[in-house]
Amino acid sequence: MSYSLVIGEKEYTLPSDIPIDKWVELNKNSNPFVWMNSVYDIPIDEVKLIPEKTRELAIQLIRAIMNPTWVPIRQTLVDTELINFEDIKLGQFIDLEVYIDDYYTNYPEIIKVLYQTENNVGNLGISQVHSAVIKFLTWRLLLYKQYKNLFDLDIEDDEIVKVKQDKHVKPAHIWYDVVMTLADDKFLNMDAVLEKPLIQSLNWLAWNKDRQRALNEQLRKR
Predict the structure, then answer these.
(1) Residue 156, CB half-sphere, CA atoms under 13 Å: how many?
(2) Of the candidates 26, 32, 38, which has an alpha carbon nearest to the alpha carbon of residue 56?
(3) Is residue 164 very low, low, confident or very high in pLDDT (cuts 50, 70, 90)?
(4) Distance CA 76, CA 213 (A)
(5) What's this model's pTM, rounded to 2 decimal places?
(6) Where are the domains of the chain?
(7) How far apart are alpha carbons 92 and 206 in whole angstroms?
């Protein structure tokens, strides 16, 4: 089913999908006139003539197209496959964490990591990838809940976790510290560490943190 707006003798149809590049730009600009112009291709002057209630309904339809969570997750994208979250490497997860810090701007880069591709994804429809991104964000939240003691987090159910205690500290800096800990502070070990499985790395960090806490407790009692 397609939806259209008729203004005078002209009919403007709502597209069934929105390219990722346009989706990114729309999320950076909440102006309803810009949205109507960009998605329906209605001239701004004509958008201003549309009754407010009609315009609000049209915007709600755009929002539905921009958040197609009802679409089944695609396991393949062109010639690449959606990554198995349980097999994500530490380096891939760190890339995703850095991109998520500016989610809308970096959305295409998130897609590239999740679908393990270097191809330009900007022209692909948002419906082809969005459900996979939402699934990853859900998995990511559960992961942080599992390791919340490691990261000293107080996590709410609907929260997009940002692992940083200070708003001025970028995720890249935090994860650099994590990598250097795993690399035993040896720069030349970093590449090998980044190729390690994420879960294995987090388990070691959690074990090491518990060990250090136990050692500090023993020293305190002496």
Answers:
(1) 4
(2) 32
(3) very low
(4) 44
(5) 0.85
(6) 4-66, 76-217
(7) 20
